[in-house]
Design goal:
2 domains, Rossmann fold, alpha/beta, seven-stranded parallel sheet, binds adenosine monophosphate
Length: 449
Amino acid sequence: MEFQKFNFHPAIAANIREAGYVTPTPIQLQAIPTVMQGRDVMGLAQTGTGKTAAFALPILHRLMDGPRGRVRVLVVAPTRELAEQIHESFVAFGRQTRLKSVTVYGGVNANPQIQALKNGVEIVVACPGRLLDHIGQGVIDLSHVEVLVLDEADQMFDMGFLPDIKRILKNLPIKRQTLLFSATMPPDIKKLAQDILTDPVTVQVGNTAPPVTVSHALYPVEQHLKTALLLELLQHTDTESVLIFTRTKYRAKRLGEQLEKAGYKAASLQGNLSQNRRQAALDGFRDGTYQILVATDIAARGIDVSLISHVINYDIPDTPEAYVHRIGRTGRAAKSGDAFTMVCSEDTLMVRTIEKKLGAPLERRTVTGFDYNVPAPKKDAEFARPPREPRAIRKPTDIKKGTSTSINPFKPDHAGSKAASSGRPQVGRPGAAAGSAPKTIFNSSRRGK
Ligand code: AMP
């Protein structure tokens, strides 16, 4: 099945060809005809599945008929980056249609947004806070909205936007088409869906599992060796563009600086940056000025960089959903990607939870030649987590450089080993798997500085 079958307006069809889209993704196959029929949709899909075009294309098609110069479509998204990305899709697919889209979010001057709204637009892509400001000041009229899209609803919920969404809904006509997209379905989102969708069609792809094109691996390592191991990994892995996640803004900033010092073209993206600097970091990552972007979860939401070859979790995420989200940044739209996660002994429980969600054990890898034996500095830098309880089971004599019987809290399994197929990660049993061959990395070393 190809895009022609949807019979989009000729201008839109030409833009689809121009974008190089030939075959619709599964979510597009399911959602486009449903949205075109005017039905409400509950879309269970994560980023990377093609969900933006799944709603943007039929919405543009609908807007070709009917009045111009008033807000007929409202898209609400959790982050500025995602809002920009959706807006860009509307602009690209809406070329030669004279339909206009504007983004509305905080952290930037409100006047250009107000001016654009005054000039007349059909599509508004907004983050909740600034949209409510505009509503409060009476500079946006939402009484003619025909289609509402709530994108990444679970993220909006995580970020505490649910009350804002409810306030926004009060300003919209009751009779409208509503499309709700979410990667996961926590109870609050289910309840929201029941409240705001009328006889919805549920479209679902991937069973909310990460893209199949991503290969995952865990790199067990002690906290104080993470940066050294990361540098080793980067040096020996054929990476194009790498998105690295840290747990805190501070760690993102520090790591970005360390990578720069090591000679990489790296930038960090964290909430403390001004909007201009965030945009510069993102643009630089997109156009290849930066090969590496270090970010926190919040800062990275909505990043769509289709060429990301590797996602590296410098710190493991707090929830399995966040893991799926993070690694959804690579392997997008059937491109293959790699997701590496550095894990310490305190991450054992989270690793288990993630493996449970994925339904499969994750491969443990060690890096040959890397000295896992370097002791922690006496005064562990600010970077490290608080000191851990001493682990009685660890004996310095067990440590062998570059082998599976290293200091690693996890036993690295080779693919197909018993432990791997049993679904159980081997945790904290040094010496128990002597002879198991950990997968090592030794790819071509294109450093790409
Ligand atoms: P999304 O899930 O909307 O963030 O899309 C992920 C990436 O897939 C974006 O870079 C899109 O441009 C790309 N994409 C979406 N649909 C298609 C398609 N049918 N063919 C090729 N690329 C696509």
